[in-house]
């Protein structure tokens, strides 16, 4: 049934829990973050945000799916301990691998999925479907860096949204984890009717939600309006440094999107076989890179292949890199050598004019 357009449509957060890894994380593991300048909000609060929209394929309910997610995620996390980690700042920054886990959010929306997808304000409202709390700069070790939200729409639709800090994992690494997790999920014998949903343990007043917000309003931690382009280059064909590759991609994206050039940008070089480098970089006004660049799309990274219910493919997928402020952000994503992938993926995120 259609909702009354004169009534504000609300999104309610019904439950928040944590999914820890199913095995104890070995002590002493960390990923160092090399920084040439203090980490500002444009880096600390930047994240990969994706939302998958599904119609119910059978008897599964969003409540059951949230419970299945917790069970299979706990089984998948031990193989990727960085995703359970937290930021730590001592003499420098690092991601400490530990058992802190992933935040799981269960929510309900006062609208149908078809109405939401058809809304002219959908891009602005999607942040409500991928929960995020800003990293606490003073006590970053208490801030979650990876959130998964299951949202039940009115009718037969639901969405699964994720927000993952770029300091934790880049979109290429995270997409490959999601597909690996989906394989783990498919191999598990999960109960069709889980005994414990995320919202099973509630406060005495069951009519109250943890949080509520108007869908048409901007979330408290809403990022700036940005556009991201993806490029791909062969490792062996890269003739210069990754910094110069980033400049080449930035120039190409600036030209294609018709965005005003800026003298500086922030560069993240994400090598999951080593450390994460964060550098402020100058954008030379002249020169050419000579690199052969191919434009790629999110679906080419395997994002649209992700499903946790066998045979139920998403009807729509939305991906973006969310970043505060009006700066330029370039992420160079280097696959680990063990994967034998010859491609380097570069994302360029620019503010919308």
Automatic annotation (TrEMBL):
GO terms for molecular function: acyltransferase activity, transferring groups other than amino-acyl groups. The keyword Glycosyltransferase does not apply. This is (wild Malaysian banana) hypothetical protein. InterPro entries: CAT-like_dom_sf (IPR023213), Plant_Fungal_Acyltransferase (IPR050317). PANTHER family: OS02G0653400 PROTEIN, TRICHOTHECENE 3-O-ACETYLTRANSFERASE. Keywords: Acyltransferase, Transferase. Belongs to the plant acyltransferase family.
């Amino acid at each position: 049934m259609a909702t009354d357009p004169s009534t504000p449509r609300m999104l309610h957060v019904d439950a928040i829990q944590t999914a820890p890894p199913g095995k104890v994380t070995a002590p002493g593991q960390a990923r160092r973050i090399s920084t040439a300048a203090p980490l500002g909000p444009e880096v600390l609060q930047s994240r990969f945000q994706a939302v998958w929209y599904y119609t119910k394929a059978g008897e599964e309910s969003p409540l059951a799916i949230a419970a299945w997610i917790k069970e299979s995620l706990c089984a998948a996390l031990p193989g990727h301990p960085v995703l359970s980690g937290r930021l730590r700042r001592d003499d420098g920054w690092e991601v400490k691998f530990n058992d802190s886990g992933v935040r799981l959010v269960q929510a309900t929306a006062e609208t149908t999925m078809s109405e939401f997808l058809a809304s002219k304000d959908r891009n602005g409202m999607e942040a409500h479907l991928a929960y995020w709390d800003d990293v606490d700069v003073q006590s970053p070790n208490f801030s979650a860096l990876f959130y998964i939200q299951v949202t039940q729409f009115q009718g037969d639709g639901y969405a699964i949204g994720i927000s993952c800090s770029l300091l934790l994992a880049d979109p290429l690494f995270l997409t490959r984890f999601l597909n690996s997790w989906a394989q783990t999920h498919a191999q598990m014998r999960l109960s069709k009717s889980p005994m414990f949903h995320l919202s099973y343990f509630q406060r005495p007043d069951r009519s109250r939600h943890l949080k509520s917000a108007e869908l048409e309003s901007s979330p408290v931690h809403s990022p700036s309006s940005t556009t991201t382009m993806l490029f791909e280059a062969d490792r062996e064909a890269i003739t210069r440094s990754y910094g110069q590759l980033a400049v080449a991609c930035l120039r190409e994206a600036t030209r294609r999107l018709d965005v005003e050039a800026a003298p500086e940008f922030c560069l993240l070089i994400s090598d999951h076989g080593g450390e994460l480098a964060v550098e402020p970089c100058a954008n030379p006004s002249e020169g050419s890179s000579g690199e052969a660049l191919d434009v790629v799309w999110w679906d080419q990274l395997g994002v649209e292949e992700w499903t946790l219910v066998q045979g139920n493919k998403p009807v729509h997928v939305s991906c973006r890199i969310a970043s505060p402020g009006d700066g330029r952000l370039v992420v160079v994503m280097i696959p680990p050598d063990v994967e034998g992938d010859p491609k380097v993926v570069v994302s360029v995120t620019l503010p919308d004019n």
